[in-house]
Amino acid sequence: MDTRLDFLTNPVSAKVVKHIAAAGKALADSTLPAATHELVALRASQINGCGFCVDIHTKEAAHAGETQVRLHLVAAWREASVFTDAERAALELAEEGTRIADAAGGVSDEVWANAAKHYDEDQLAALVSIIAVINAFNRLNVLTVRPAGEYQVGQFG
Predict the structure, then answer these.
(1) Where are the beta strands (DSSP E) in the chain?
(2) Is the pTM of this model over 0.90?
(3) Domain at 113, CATH number
(4) Are 67 and 97 in contact (CB under 8 A)?
(5) DSSP character string of 92-113
(6) For a 10 Å CB count at each end of the chain, is N or C smaller?
(7) Would you say which domain of life the source belongs to (predicted)?
(8) What share of the chain is helix, strand, coil (3-state, %, to 5)?
(9) How confident is the model at residue 86 (pLDDT cuts 50, 70, 90)?
């Protein structure tokens, strides 16, 4: 499988990627649990069919200590008993935030209120930002057919 466009080396897209990546790195200081960050990025990537990002976030989460059981169950989180109520609220927010075109009203008030029960304003800001950033990366990878499977933990620093 060949990538249609290497947006990491193309001078125009490389500038854009640099800024999107910087936005993602700004979230590293957030008080949002790192596991929640990875689970949300993984779920959005699954929804968007971004194999490259699924590869990244499963490997990074596993490297950070996430269990294989939880990683395998992210796609079926509603039926899984291995996630906390807070993680479930974050995953639901990630799903609705990723599928905004599928619902006339975008993210429902109920989903937002549920997330707000578990996360403070700064953590909600981090969640929203993670969802936006991962969706941007998913679209770059899917549009350019970036293959999955060769990512090495820490590769993008």
Answers:
(1) none
(2) yes
(3) 1.20.1290.10
(4) no
(5) HHHHHHHTGGGSTTSS-HHHHH
(6) C
(7) Bacteria
(8) 70, 0, 30
(9) very high
- Report the distance separating Cα 55 and Cα 148, nearest Å: 6
| Cα-trace Rg, the chain | 15
Q: Is residue 14 part of a domain?
A: no
Q: Which residue has the higher pLDDT, 104 or 55?
A: 55
Measured CA to CA, the distance from residue 29 to residue 33 in angstroms comes to 10
- Average pLDDT, rounded, for the chain: 94
| Tokens describing residue 103 | 């619902």
Please give the tally of structural domains in the chain.
1
Distance CA(80)–CA(98), nearest Å, equals 21
| Assigned token pair, 107 | 């993210």
Give mean pLDDT, residues 106-123.
96
Q: Flag whether 25 is in a domain.
A: no
Residue 59 neighbours by CB under 8 Å, 6+ apart: 151, 152, 153
